[in-house]
Amino acid sequence: MSTPVVIDLAAIENLRALNPGDHDEFLREITGIFLEDTPRRIAELEQSLAAGDTAKFARAAHSIKGSSANLGAAALRAVAEQLERQANKEGLGGVAPLLASLRAEFSRAESELKKLIGS
What we know:
The chain is mainly α. Helices cover 79% and strands 0% of the residues. The chain has a single domain (9-117), classed as HPT domain (Four Helix Bundle (Hemerythrin (Met), subunit A)), CATH 1.20.120.160.
């Protein structure tokens, strides 16, 4: 299985198509929300892992999965999906390495998105 791309440019073009001619204002707004919200969700993952709250952990992973998919952050979405699936099926044991992968993928996505929107 191939590794997902950091940012799927087709998803970016789909977002741009929602507000053509706005000089990427909509894309910058959506990206800004994502870049502000995702670290909060990652903190939720860490807190719920420490507290042993599987349901909260799965919800936070699900939230990251959805927002990542919307912005085409394919690699980040894939890791978030793994975290959500593992939490729901097996609990929180063994999720720490995946959580580290999620942080790394967010960093990569953040860097690529900032390049795309010119910030």
